[in-house]
Amino acid sequence: MAEHLSQSELDYPFKLLEYFNGFRVSKVIFSACELGVFDLLLASPEPLSAAAVARELSASVDGVERLLDALVGIEILEVETKEGTAVYSSTDVASLYLARGSAKSLHDMIVYQSQTIYPLWNNMVDAVREGKNQNEKTFGLPSADIFKAIYRSEEEMLKFMGLMNSSWVLDGHDIVTAFDLSGFQTVVDLGGCTGALAREMAAAYPSSSVTVFDLPQVVETAQKHFSQEDDTVAFQTGDFFDGEVPAADLYVLARIIHDWPEEKCVTLLKKIYETCNPGGGVLLVEAMLFENRRGPIMAQIFSLNMLVQAEGRERPPSEYTRLLKASGFLNVQVCRTGKSYDAILATR
Questions:
Q1: Catalytic one of 107, 173, 225, 258
Q2: Beta-bridge partner residues of 284
Q3: How far apart are CA 174 and CA 307, in angstroms?
Q4: Is 173 an annotated catalytic residue?
Q5: What is the pLDDT of residues 209-259, one digit of tens each?
Q6: What letters, b where the CB count within 10 A reaches 16 and e where it falls short, cover 124-154?
């Protein structure tokens, strides 16, 4: 590795120190979201002082001032001085992505990262040593049933569903338009959670009928907390591992295959192959590794997360192609979106 570093980096490890402190930067953003800093600043008609923010959030002025200054340092907030007092306001990026009320808010994703992923990653050393997830050590729940850990309470289910909803509000359109899917008249999103990706599919292909298929408790929660007026998608309950899946032209598996070991993936894909209508197919949505596994770094990080939280991994295109062909699918196309998630379309 040393030959790739500049002499200045060898003399003083700026980049390494930046990486070392990465978790602290994450926690600055996480903490501000959980406290409601961005919601408060977005709602305010004028910039606020640290004292005003502290008063509204029932927090210490000293702590709030340090937090706000760190957010300015990482260019999430802006600061100016008025009549000798520093006052703070949100950047456009903070207003768009970090405030809870924004249409593109990632607030739920951030809360899940802070309250669920962060504690799991504290046990990464054990995950690497043992080669298995750390749900038992982190949450006191058996490692064998990963969704019993993820859905361990209604509150935790809502956090996870908020994470998934945020993901598809951000990346959904790029995913559903990665290929021309207009030829598929009936679409079933298996494990479609809140319906966010299914709604993107329905918006892009209004002549297609789109159904979310998920566990009964997930569907109930989705319809209670994430429903929309004049919803364009239908919901159906079931278990795609233990029961039958409805017939369709296209099945969507978004961030599903990466949860599981290979044999379980092939079992599910074979079931889909046998059930899908003639000429039908499956759309996989995953963060794909490069073939040599040397990147992208986000996919490598996601793969470590599968180690610490689930039973699967992120894979390069050739592995997804092999899994699909082992399940009966013949024609496989791959599209890298350039965003967090990529698309693989396979047809019979």
A1: 258
A2: 253, 344
A3: 27
A4: no
A5: 999 999 999 999 999 999 988 899 999 999 999 999 999 999 999 999 999
A6: eeebeeeeebbbebbbeeebeebeebbbbee
